[in-house]
Amino acid sequence: MDFGRLITAMVTPYDKEGEIDWEAASRLVDYLIEEQKSEGLVVCGTTGESPTLSDEEKLQMFSFVLEKAAGRCKVIAGTGSYNTKHTIELTQKAEKIGVDGALLVVPYYNKPNQEGLYRHFSAIAAETSLPLILYNVPSRTGICMSADTTIRLAQIPNIVATKECASLDHVALIAAGCPDDFHVYSGDDSSALPALAVGGHGIISVASHLEGARMDEMISAYLSGDVQHAGKVHRELFPIFKGLFECPQPLPNPSAVKYALELRGIKVGSVRLPLTPPNEAEAEFIRKLVL
């Protein structure tokens, strides 16, 4: 399974009452595919505020985006959680809907050891035929899945990729140690181009909500051998890459990209508690960043 080079971790649009705004979701899917050149969409991942979505809402979103995309891009369901049994059940339900794959975050908070991580992901893989993407994001989960554990998991046929946010070293080690058809995606927009240089396949991006078409240009230029132009685009986009990951502090969350989309005329609403909209200083920072 090739999910493409540019995948957007899609926000979940809400109305003023904090319920899913289906009309806005429809417009967002078209916009991300047609204007921002997304080859894949992660639906109800953490950028989509998965912790505050019910299973029913997630399944509705999976079905809705799959129907709306209509084969124009791959649809990847965010089904991961700390609970192995629950993740299996949600992944199986997503598979019945017909999604193209599932994204599984490293279990958080309780800090399982590497053997626990291996058993968690291998147990899920054994109960579904969906292609699975691992997601290692130690700044949020509190635990880093080692490159060795990822390489071990890559031997399982339906574990086909990883979204790697630990370091470029991890990207390089995994790319070197995994089968050729196992794809390593950067989960850090500012590392999208450097990751390609050390063996990465692409990016699972937040900034692609705003600059996906230019990111596609950057990736295409690099792959065609025009490294100079790829570097130029990267440098031009770098302030947005970094800015979205610096606001709000201490860790970014979807409120920044949602506010930026609103400024660009893409109506997606705000965030659900416990997240909050940008404060005055944050809003001014985002305005200067994207306008």
UniProtKB/TrEMBL annotation:
CDD domains: DHDPS
Cellular localisation: Cytoplasm
GO molecular function: 4-hydroxy-tetrahydrodipicolinate synthase activity
Pathways involved: Amino-acid biosynthesis; L-lysine biosynthesis via DAP pathway; (S)-tetrahydrodipicolinate from L-aspartate: step 3/4
Cellular component, GO, one term: cytosol
UniProt keyword list: Amino-acid biosynthesis, Cytoplasm, Diaminopimelate biosynthesis, Lyase, Lysine biosynthesis, Schiff base
Amino-acid biosynthesis as UniProt keyword: yes
GO biological process: diaminopimelate biosynthetic process; lysine biosynthetic process via diaminopimelate
Main location group: cytoplasm
InterPro entries for the chain: Aldolase_TIM, DapA, DapA-like, Schiff_base-form_aldolases_CS
Assembly and oligomerization: Homotetramer; dimer of dimers.
Function statement: Catalyzes the condensation of (S)-aspartate-beta-semialdehyde [(S)-ASA] and pyruvate to 4-hydroxy-tetrahydrodipicolinate (HTPA).
Family to which the UniProt record says this protein belongs: Belongs to the DapA family.
Protein name according to UniProt: 4-hydroxy-tetrahydrodipicolinate synthase
